[in-house]
Amino acid sequence: MSMFNDTRVKSSVFLLTGIPGQEAAHIWISIPFCSIYVVSMVGNAVILFIVKTDPSLHEPMYIFLSMLALTDLGLSISTVPTVMGIFWFNAQEISFTACFAQLFFIHSLSFIESSVLLSMAFDRYVAICNPLRYASILTTPRIAKMGLAFMLRGVLLIFPLPFLLKRFQYCKANVLSHSYCLHQEVKKMACSDIRVNSIYGLFVIISTVGMDSLLILLSYVMILRAVLSIASQEERLKALNTCVSHICAVLLFYTPMIGLSIVHRFGRDLSPLVQILMGYVYLLVPPLMNPIVYSVKTKQIRARMVRTCFK
């Protein structure tokens, strides 16, 4: 009898959430979301095409930019099926396997992007603080090794999470508050002890985003010291201007990520709509804005785009 009472009904799917209370307007809401995805994918694809086809852009700064564009493209592709599935077809159900696969790609690509932003900060540090050794430090083989290391770090750190989640029993309503799967949400749906996931998740965040953001801050402290030592104000502004695009990319990436983490951990009294909107900003805004920022602020990319459009 006790065995029967302890038996729990297992659910086999998670339920995704669009925008609560606006189900009737989902088809209209899908228009701006679809536009964001199209602009994000086209923008990042254009960046990749320009860097690949223009030999004058085969420099460290633009190679790192192409890595950033490739990562943003992957993030858009990994979320578009479920987000647009909800708004177009009201497809709220997602299987455990598909959900675990999606969160693996979302988190691993996010941590890879954090690593790429760190490498771009290092690129600006070398270019401003040690310009004479720039070409000898950031060689193409070394950049390729850095890219491989970033990818391995992101993949290997996230790889255990789907397996840790798979061993849990899920016997609740399993309604997620986003239209895609995130580890911090899925683990809360479990009826099991999630302490291992919580501890490991905290370790991953500290060793990736936490470490990267501190190193980026340190890089800019040293860049600022080097720039202030330059006698000419015009040269100072010119040196700082080369960092503007990267600073914008850093703010676009880390601000929504930190905001979403704070909302998940401390925003229990907030409206669910705030959490949902923060989730969309976290995953949709950086891939959308990064190509626009670099196109506007980087003269070489802008000129190449103009030549391509009017050829």
UniProtKB/TrEMBL annotation:
Pfam families: 7tm_4 (PF13853). Residues 43-294 form the G-protein coupled receptors family 1 profile domain. It comes from the Eukaryota. Its main location: membrane. It is found in: Cell membrane; Membrane. One of its GO terms (biological process) is cellular response to lipid. GO terms for molecular function: G protein-coupled receptor activity; olfactory receptor activity. The keyword Phosphoprotein does not apply. Belongs to the G-protein coupled receptor 1 family. This is Olfactory receptor. It comes from Alligator sinensis.
